[in-house]
User: Fold these one by one.
Assistant:
Number 1:
Amino acid sequence: NAGVTQTPKFQVLKTGQSMTLQCAQDMNHEYMSWYRQDPGMGLRLIHYSVGAGITDQGEVPNGYNVSRSTTEDFPLRLLSAAPSQTSVYFCASSYGAGTGELFFGEGSRLTVL
Amino acid sequence: GEDVEQSLFLSVREGDSSVINCTYTDSSSTYLYWYKQEPGAGLQLLTYIFSNMDMKQDQRLTVLLNKKDKHLSLRIADTQTGDSAIYFCAENAGKSTFGDGTTLTVKP
Protein backbone atom coordinates (compact mmCIF):
# COMPACT_ATOMS: atom_id res chain seq x y z
CA ASN A 1 0.00 0.00 0.00
CA ALA A 2 1.77 3.15 -1.23
CA GLY A 3 -0.29 5.73 0.72
CA VAL A 4 0.33 9.30 -0.50
CA THR A 5 2.94 9.65 -3.22
CA GLN A 6 4.44 12.98 -4.23
CA THR A 7 6.70 13.71 -7.17
CA PRO A 8 9.21 15.15 -7.68
CA LYS A 9 11.05 15.09 -4.34
CA PHE A 10 13.34 17.94 -5.38
CA GLN A 11 13.02 20.63 -8.03
CA VAL A 12 14.92 23.80 -8.92
CA LEU A 13 13.15 26.40 -11.04
CA LYS A 14 14.00 29.79 -12.43
CA THR A 15 11.73 32.72 -11.72
CA GLY A 16 8.82 32.73 -14.16
CA GLN A 17 8.94 29.02 -14.99
CA SER A 18 5.92 26.82 -14.48
CA MET A 19 5.69 23.34 -13.05
CA THR A 20 3.30 20.83 -11.54
CA LEU A 21 3.77 18.94 -8.30
CA GLN A 22 2.04 15.59 -8.50
CA CYS A 23 0.16 13.93 -5.66
CA ALA A 24 -1.56 10.57 -5.76
CA GLN A 25 -3.20 8.47 -3.05
CA ASP A 26 -4.41 4.89 -3.21
CA MET A 27 -6.58 4.87 -0.07
CA ASN A 28 -9.80 6.05 -1.74
CA HIS A 29 -9.74 9.19 0.39
CA GLU A 30 -12.25 11.87 -0.48
CA TYR A 31 -10.27 14.70 1.07
CA MET A 32 -6.93 15.91 -0.29
CA SER A 33 -4.92 19.02 0.48
CA TRP A 34 -1.67 20.83 -0.18
CA TYR A 35 0.43 22.54 2.49
CA ARG A 36 3.63 24.47 2.35
CA GLN A 37 6.13 24.37 5.19
CA ASP A 38 8.49 27.26 5.82
CA PRO A 39 10.92 27.66 8.73
CA GLY A 40 9.24 29.20 11.76
CA MET A 41 5.85 29.31 10.02
CA GLY A 42 4.61 25.78 10.42
CA LEU A 43 2.27 24.32 7.85
CA ARG A 44 0.02 26.59 5.84
CA LEU A 45 -2.87 25.30 3.77
CA ILE A 46 -2.71 26.23 0.08
CA HIS A 47 -5.70 24.45 -1.50
CA TYR A 48 -7.92 21.54 -0.60
CA SER A 49 -10.53 19.28 -2.16
CA VAL A 50 -13.41 17.42 -0.56
CA GLY A 51 -13.99 15.20 -3.57
CA ALA A 52 -13.50 14.81 -7.31
CA GLY A 53 -14.50 18.00 -9.14
CA ILE A 54 -14.48 20.15 -5.99
CA THR A 55 -11.61 22.39 -4.90
CA ASP A 56 -11.33 25.35 -2.56
CA GLN A 57 -8.75 27.83 -1.37
CA GLY A 58 -6.85 27.60 1.85
CA GLU A 59 -4.85 30.19 3.72
CA VAL A 60 -2.21 30.95 1.04
CA PRO A 61 -3.65 30.16 -2.43
CA ASN A 62 -2.11 32.96 -4.50
CA GLY A 63 0.23 31.76 -7.24
CA TYR A 64 -1.08 28.19 -7.15
CA ASN A 65 -3.77 26.30 -9.05
CA VAL A 66 -5.24 22.87 -8.38
CA SER A 67 -7.69 20.51 -10.01
CA ARG A 68 -9.30 17.24 -8.93
CA SER A 69 -10.43 15.24 -11.90
CA THR A 70 -10.15 11.88 -10.10
CA THR A 71 -10.36 10.75 -6.49
CA GLU A 72 -6.75 9.58 -6.60
CA ASP A 73 -4.91 12.62 -7.99
CA PHE A 74 -4.54 16.22 -6.81
CA PRO A 75 -1.82 18.10 -8.73
CA LEU A 76 -0.57 21.52 -7.65
CA ARG A 77 0.42 23.92 -10.42
CA LEU A 78 2.74 26.89 -10.17
CA LEU A 79 2.03 29.02 -13.23
CA SER A 80 4.88 31.53 -12.87
CA ALA A 81 7.28 30.60 -10.09
CA ALA A 82 8.59 33.27 -7.72
CA PRO A 83 11.41 33.07 -5.14
CA SER A 84 8.75 33.45 -2.40
CA GLN A 85 7.47 30.02 -3.43
CA THR A 86 10.70 28.36 -2.35
CA SER A 87 9.43 25.93 0.26
CA VAL A 88 8.72 22.32 1.11
CA TYR A 89 5.32 21.21 -0.15
CA PHE A 90 3.28 18.45 1.41
CA CYS A 91 0.25 16.71 0.04
CA ALA A 92 -2.10 15.10 2.56
CA SER A 93 -5.30 13.11 2.40
CA SER A 94 -7.94 11.84 4.77
CA TYR A 95 -11.07 9.78 4.58
CA GLY A 96 -13.27 12.78 5.21
CA ALA A 97 -12.86 16.43 6.04
CA GLY A 98 -13.29 17.16 9.73
CA THR A 99 -12.65 13.64 11.00
CA GLY A 100 -9.86 11.16 10.91
CA GLU A 101 -6.16 11.13 10.46
CA LEU A 102 -4.34 13.12 7.79
CA PHE A 103 -1.89 11.01 5.80
CA PHE A 104 1.06 12.95 4.43
CA GLY A 105 3.36 12.44 1.49
CA GLU A 106 7.10 12.72 2.02
CA GLY A 107 7.28 16.24 0.66
CA SER A 108 8.61 18.05 -2.39
CA ARG A 109 11.42 20.54 -1.86
CA LEU A 110 11.16 23.38 -4.36
CA THR A 111 13.78 26.08 -4.89
CA VAL A 112 13.02 29.07 -7.10
CA LEU A 113 16.07 31.06 -8.19
CA GLY B 1 -10.26 32.50 12.29
CA GLU B 2 -8.54 29.43 13.66
CA ASP B 3 -5.15 29.83 15.27
CA VAL B 4 -2.90 27.30 16.94
CA GLU B 5 0.15 28.33 18.94
CA GLN B 6 3.09 26.33 20.25
CA SER B 7 6.46 27.15 21.71
CA LEU B 8 9.16 26.58 19.10
CA PHE B 9 11.89 24.71 20.97
CA LEU B 10 12.28 22.25 23.84
CA SER B 11 15.47 20.56 25.00
CA VAL B 12 15.52 17.72 27.53
CA ARG B 13 17.92 15.07 28.80
CA GLU B 14 17.42 11.43 27.84
CA GLY B 15 15.21 9.73 30.42
CA ASP B 16 13.46 12.94 31.49
CA SER B 17 9.85 13.75 30.70
CA SER B 18 9.02 16.20 27.92
CA VAL B 19 5.94 18.40 27.92
CA ILE B 20 4.90 20.18 24.75
CA ASN B 21 2.12 22.73 25.03
CA CYS B 22 -0.38 24.08 22.54
CA THR B 23 -3.21 26.58 22.60
CA TYR B 24 -5.98 26.71 20.02
CA THR B 25 -8.91 28.96 19.27
CA ASP B 26 -11.51 26.87 17.40
CA SER B 27 -13.79 25.48 20.10
CA SER B 28 -15.75 23.48 17.51
CA SER B 29 -12.89 21.03 16.92
CA THR B 30 -14.14 17.48 17.39
CA TYR B 31 -10.66 16.04 17.63
CA LEU B 32 -7.27 17.49 18.47
CA TYR B 33 -4.15 15.88 17.12
CA TRP B 34 -0.45 15.54 17.70
CA TYR B 35 1.74 14.81 14.69
CA LYS B 36 5.45 14.00 14.62
CA GLN B 37 7.82 15.00 11.83
CA GLU B 38 11.24 13.43 11.59
CA PRO B 39 13.97 15.08 9.47
CA GLY B 40 13.30 14.93 5.75
CA ALA B 41 9.94 13.25 6.16
CA GLY B 42 6.27 14.08 6.15
CA LEU B 43 4.13 14.30 9.26
CA GLN B 44 2.76 11.19 10.90
CA LEU B 45 -0.06 11.01 13.39
CA LEU B 46 1.26 10.39 16.89
CA THR B 47 -1.94 10.48 18.89
CA TYR B 48 -5.24 12.31 19.13
CA ILE B 49 -7.89 13.14 21.71
CA PHE B 50 -11.63 13.49 21.33
CA SER B 51 -12.82 16.88 22.44
CA ASN B 52 -15.03 15.53 25.23
CA MET B 53 -12.07 13.83 26.93
CA ASP B 54 -9.73 15.37 29.49
CA MET B 55 -6.90 12.90 29.19
CA LYS B 56 -5.68 10.10 27.00
CA GLN B 57 -2.76 7.82 27.75
CA ASP B 58 -0.99 5.70 25.16
CA GLN B 59 2.15 3.95 26.44
CA ARG B 60 4.72 6.74 27.01
CA LEU B 61 2.40 9.43 25.71
CA THR B 62 -0.14 11.37 27.77
CA VAL B 63 -2.39 13.97 26.20
CA LEU B 64 -4.16 16.48 28.42
CA LEU B 65 -6.97 18.68 27.18
CA ASN B 66 -8.30 21.71 29.02
CA LYS B 67 -11.25 22.68 26.89
CA LYS B 68 -12.14 25.70 28.99
CA ASP B 69 -8.70 27.25 28.45
CA LYS B 70 -8.31 25.72 24.95
CA HIS B 71 -5.01 24.21 26.03
CA LEU B 72 -3.58 20.92 24.84
CA SER B 73 -0.41 19.26 26.05
CA LEU B 74 1.62 16.23 25.10
CA ARG B 75 3.77 14.55 27.72
CA ILE B 76 6.40 12.04 26.66
CA ALA B 77 7.67 9.93 29.55
CA ASP B 78 11.24 8.57 29.60
CA THR B 79 12.20 10.62 26.54
CA GLN B 80 14.63 8.88 24.20
CA THR B 81 17.00 10.25 21.55
CA GLY B 82 14.67 8.73 18.94
CA ASP B 83 11.97 11.14 20.12
CA SER B 84 13.96 14.06 18.72
CA ALA B 85 11.68 15.54 16.06
CA ILE B 86 9.26 18.36 15.39
CA TYR B 87 5.85 17.96 17.05
CA PHE B 88 2.77 19.66 15.69
CA CYS B 89 -0.59 20.07 17.31
CA ALA B 90 -3.57 20.42 14.99
CA GLU B 91 -7.26 21.01 15.29
CA ASN B 92 -9.86 19.39 13.07
CA ALA B 93 -8.62 16.82 10.62
CA GLY B 94 -9.52 17.75 7.09
CA LYS B 95 -9.01 21.45 6.75
CA SER B 96 -6.59 21.21 9.61
CA THR B 97 -4.92 24.16 11.21
CA PHE B 98 -1.46 23.36 12.47
CA GLY B 99 0.73 25.04 15.01
CA ASP B 100 4.23 26.14 14.01
CA GLY B 101 5.72 23.00 15.52
CA THR B 102 7.90 22.42 18.58
CA THR B 103 11.40 21.13 17.88
CA LEU B 104 12.26 18.62 20.59
CA THR B 105 15.95 17.94 21.12
CA VAL B 106 16.90 15.05 23.40
CA LYS B 107 20.44 15.15 24.75
CA PRO B 108 22.14 11.92 25.83
Number 2:
Amino acid sequence: AQKVTQAQTEISVVEKEDVTLDCVYETRDTTYYLFWYKQPPSGELVFLIRRNSFDEQNEISGRYSWNFQKSTSSFNFTITASQVVDSAVYFCALSEAWRDDKIIFGKGTRLHILP
Amino acid sequence: NAGVMQNPRHLVRRRGQEARLRCSPMKGHSHVYWYRQLPEEGLKFMVYLQKENIIDESGMPKERFSAEFPKEGPSILRIQQVVRGDSAAYFCASSPQTVEQYFGPGTRLTVT
Protein backbone atom coordinates (compact mmCIF):
# COMPACT_ATOMS: atom_id res chain seq x y z
CA ALA A 1 0.00 0.00 0.00
CA GLN A 2 1.15 3.52 -0.65
CA LYS A 3 1.38 6.00 2.17
CA VAL A 4 3.00 9.32 2.98
CA THR A 5 3.79 10.25 6.55
CA GLN A 6 4.61 13.73 7.75
CA ALA A 7 5.22 13.22 11.42
CA GLN A 8 5.54 16.91 12.24
CA THR A 9 2.07 18.36 12.52
CA GLU A 10 3.18 21.87 13.34
CA ILE A 11 6.53 23.64 13.57
CA SER A 12 7.39 27.15 14.73
CA VAL A 13 10.76 28.76 14.13
CA VAL A 14 12.06 32.28 14.37
CA GLU A 15 12.74 34.10 11.14
CA LYS A 16 16.16 33.42 9.59
CA GLU A 17 16.44 30.02 11.20
CA ASP A 18 16.75 26.93 9.03
CA VAL A 19 13.95 24.39 9.23
CA THR A 20 13.59 20.85 7.89
CA LEU A 21 10.25 19.23 7.16
CA ASP A 22 10.30 15.46 7.27
CA CYS A 23 8.56 13.11 4.86
CA VAL A 24 8.59 9.32 4.86
CA TYR A 25 6.81 7.33 2.19
CA GLU A 26 5.78 3.75 1.51
CA THR A 27 5.37 2.18 -1.87
CA ARG A 28 5.82 -1.22 -3.49
CA ASP A 29 6.43 0.29 -6.87
CA THR A 30 9.92 0.81 -8.23
CA THR A 31 8.83 3.71 -10.38
CA TYR A 32 7.25 6.55 -8.50
CA TYR A 33 7.31 10.29 -8.08
CA LEU A 34 7.62 12.43 -5.01
CA PHE A 35 6.31 15.96 -4.64
CA TRP A 36 6.24 18.88 -2.28
CA TYR A 37 3.45 21.44 -2.35
CA LYS A 38 2.96 24.62 -0.38
CA GLN A 39 -0.48 25.79 0.72
CA PRO A 40 -0.37 29.38 1.96
CA PRO A 41 -3.21 30.86 4.03
CA SER A 42 -4.98 31.88 0.81
CA GLY A 43 -5.61 28.19 0.21
CA GLU A 44 -4.24 27.47 -3.24
CA LEU A 45 -1.72 24.72 -3.86
CA VAL A 46 1.69 25.81 -5.01
CA PHE A 47 3.84 23.19 -6.69
CA LEU A 48 7.41 23.18 -5.38
CA ILE A 49 9.15 20.11 -6.73
CA ARG A 50 8.72 16.71 -8.36
CA ARG A 51 11.37 14.03 -8.11
CA ASN A 52 11.31 10.63 -9.79
CA SER A 53 12.48 7.49 -8.04
CA PHE A 54 15.48 7.02 -10.29
CA ASP A 55 16.98 10.38 -9.49
CA GLU A 56 18.44 10.50 -6.00
CA GLN A 57 20.38 13.66 -6.57
CA ASN A 58 19.59 16.30 -4.01
CA GLU A 59 18.16 19.51 -5.34
CA ILE A 60 18.60 23.12 -4.33
CA SER A 61 16.43 25.98 -5.48
CA GLY A 62 17.28 29.26 -3.81
CA ARG A 63 16.58 28.86 -0.11
CA TYR A 64 14.86 25.52 -0.66
CA SER A 65 16.59 22.16 -0.77
CA TRP A 66 15.42 18.59 -0.88
CA ASN A 67 17.13 15.45 0.37
CA PHE A 68 15.91 12.24 -1.26
CA GLN A 69 17.12 9.04 0.44
CA LYS A 70 15.74 5.85 -1.05
CA SER A 71 17.42 3.74 1.60
CA THR A 72 15.25 5.31 4.28
CA SER A 73 12.27 6.12 2.04
CA SER A 74 12.53 9.77 2.94
CA PHE A 75 12.20 12.99 1.00
CA ASN A 76 12.93 15.83 3.39
CA PHE A 77 12.59 19.50 2.64
CA THR A 78 14.78 22.22 4.13
CA ILE A 79 14.18 25.95 4.09
CA THR A 80 17.31 27.95 4.77
CA ALA A 81 17.13 31.41 6.33
CA SER A 82 13.37 31.19 6.73
CA GLN A 83 11.14 34.18 6.11
CA VAL A 84 7.69 35.07 7.36
CA VAL A 85 6.32 34.50 3.86
CA ASP A 86 7.31 30.85 4.19
CA SER A 87 4.52 30.39 6.73
CA ALA A 88 2.17 27.85 5.20
CA VAL A 89 1.12 24.23 5.25
CA TYR A 90 3.52 22.02 3.34
CA PHE A 91 2.44 18.73 1.83
CA CYS A 92 4.64 15.88 0.75
CA ALA A 93 3.05 13.56 -1.81
CA LEU A 94 3.64 10.38 -3.79
CA SER A 95 2.46 9.17 -7.16
CA GLU A 96 2.95 5.65 -8.45
CA ALA A 97 3.39 5.49 -12.19
CA TRP A 98 1.18 2.44 -12.73
CA ARG A 99 -1.71 3.80 -10.66
CA ASP A 100 -2.88 6.33 -13.20
CA ASP A 101 -0.75 8.96 -11.55
CA LYS A 102 -3.17 9.79 -8.77
CA ILE A 103 -1.32 11.61 -6.03
CA ILE A 104 -1.28 10.45 -2.42
CA PHE A 105 -0.78 13.32 -0.01
CA GLY A 106 0.57 13.39 3.50
CA LYS A 107 -1.41 15.22 6.15
CA GLY A 108 0.81 18.24 5.94
CA THR A 109 3.09 20.19 8.25
CA ARG A 110 1.95 23.63 9.33
CA LEU A 111 4.98 25.92 9.45
CA HIS A 112 4.92 29.15 11.42
CA ILE A 113 7.78 31.57 10.86
CA LEU A 114 7.85 34.04 13.73
CA PRO A 115 9.18 37.56 13.13
CA ASN B 1 -2.19 29.54 -21.51
CA ALA B 2 -4.67 29.92 -18.71
CA GLY B 3 -4.30 27.61 -15.74
CA VAL B 4 -6.86 25.21 -14.39
CA MET B 5 -10.07 27.08 -13.66
CA GLN B 6 -12.51 26.14 -10.97
CA ASN B 7 -15.81 27.74 -10.21
CA PRO B 8 -17.31 28.78 -8.06
CA ARG B 9 -14.46 29.53 -5.70
CA HIS B 10 -16.83 29.52 -2.74
CA LEU B 11 -20.14 27.73 -2.53
CA VAL B 12 -22.61 27.71 0.31
CA ARG B 13 -25.37 25.14 0.37
CA ARG B 14 -27.97 24.15 2.92
CA ARG B 15 -28.23 20.55 3.99
CA GLY B 16 -30.14 18.54 1.41
CA GLN B 17 -29.33 20.78 -1.54
CA GLU B 18 -27.18 19.86 -4.50
CA ALA B 19 -23.69 21.20 -5.12
CA ARG B 20 -22.15 21.42 -8.58
CA LEU B 21 -18.45 22.14 -8.86
CA ARG B 22 -16.88 22.91 -12.21
CA CYS B 23 -13.37 22.41 -13.45
CA SER B 24 -11.99 23.62 -16.76
CA PRO B 25 -8.66 21.92 -17.44
CA MET B 26 -5.75 23.61 -19.07
CA LYS B 27 -5.87 23.77 -22.83
CA GLY B 28 -4.81 20.49 -24.37
CA HIS B 29 -5.21 18.51 -21.14
CA SER B 30 -7.50 15.51 -21.40
CA HIS B 31 -7.00 14.09 -17.89
CA VAL B 32 -8.83 15.47 -14.88
CA TYR B 33 -8.48 14.53 -11.23
CA TRP B 34 -10.64 15.60 -8.31
CA TYR B 35 -9.34 15.75 -4.74
CA ARG B 36 -11.03 16.66 -1.49
CA GLN B 37 -9.38 18.41 1.45
CA LEU B 38 -11.26 18.18 4.71
CA PRO B 39 -10.42 20.82 7.34
CA GLU B 40 -6.92 20.34 8.77
CA GLU B 41 -6.28 17.37 6.48
CA GLY B 42 -4.27 16.60 3.39
CA LEU B 43 -5.84 16.18 -0.01
CA LYS B 44 -7.51 12.86 -0.75
CA PHE B 45 -7.97 11.50 -4.25
CA MET B 46 -11.57 11.10 -5.34
CA VAL B 47 -11.80 10.39 -9.05
CA TYR B 48 -9.80 10.38 -12.27
CA LEU B 49 -11.49 11.06 -15.58
CA GLN B 50 -10.60 11.32 -19.20
CA LYS B 51 -12.94 12.75 -21.80
CA GLU B 52 -16.28 10.91 -21.46
CA ASN B 53 -14.73 8.19 -19.29
CA ILE B 54 -14.30 7.57 -15.60
CA ILE B 55 -10.95 5.83 -15.23
CA ASP B 56 -10.69 5.46 -11.45
CA GLU B 57 -13.36 6.41 -8.93
CA SER B 58 -11.93 4.45 -6.04
CA GLY B 59 -11.82 7.52 -3.80
CA MET B 60 -15.35 8.65 -4.45
CA PRO B 61 -18.05 8.01 -1.85
CA LYS B 62 -20.48 5.46 -3.24
CA GLU B 63 -23.57 7.55 -2.67
CA ARG B 64 -24.52 11.12 -3.51
CA PHE B 65 -21.28 11.88 -5.38
CA SER B 66 -20.82 11.72 -9.14
CA ALA B 67 -18.40 13.14 -11.65
CA GLU B 68 -18.33 13.61 -15.36
CA PHE B 69 -16.02 15.02 -18.00
CA PRO B 70 -18.02 15.44 -21.19
CA LYS B 71 -16.61 15.73 -24.66
CA GLU B 72 -17.31 19.44 -24.59
CA GLY B 73 -17.26 21.65 -21.53
CA PRO B 74 -15.85 21.44 -18.05
CA SER B 75 -15.65 18.51 -15.70
CA ILE B 76 -18.41 18.53 -13.11
CA LEU B 77 -18.32 17.12 -9.60
CA ARG B 78 -21.86 16.78 -8.33
CA ILE B 79 -22.84 16.22 -4.73
CA GLN B 80 -26.48 15.49 -4.10
CA GLN B 81 -28.27 16.06 -0.79
CA VAL B 82 -25.23 17.64 0.83
CA VAL B 83 -24.51 17.08 4.50
CA ARG B 84 -22.32 19.04 6.92
CA GLY B 85 -19.54 16.50 6.49
CA ASP B 86 -19.24 17.45 2.82
CA SER B 87 -17.86 20.86 3.82
CA ALA B 88 -14.36 20.88 2.40
CA ALA B 89 -12.12 22.31 -0.26
CA TYR B 90 -12.41 20.47 -3.57
CA PHE B 91 -9.44 20.69 -5.86
CA CYS B 92 -9.30 19.77 -9.49
CA ALA B 93 -6.09 18.97 -11.33
CA SER B 94 -5.49 18.42 -15.02
CA SER B 95 -2.67 16.83 -16.92
CA PRO B 96 -1.58 16.03 -20.42
CA GLN B 97 -0.46 12.47 -20.93
CA THR B 98 2.33 12.81 -18.38
CA VAL B 99 2.64 12.60 -14.64
CA GLU B 100 2.44 16.36 -14.18
CA GLN B 101 -0.76 17.54 -12.57
CA TYR B 102 -1.65 21.18 -12.47
CA PHE B 103 -3.98 22.15 -9.67
CA GLY B 104 -6.77 24.66 -9.77
CA PRO B 105 -7.42 27.15 -6.97
CA GLY B 106 -10.09 24.96 -5.39
CA THR B 107 -13.74 25.37 -4.51
CA ARG B 108 -14.57 25.83 -0.86
CA LEU B 109 -17.90 24.22 -0.10
CA THR B 110 -19.69 25.15 3.09
CA VAL B 111 -22.80 23.25 4.09
CA THR B 112 -24.98 25.05 6.61
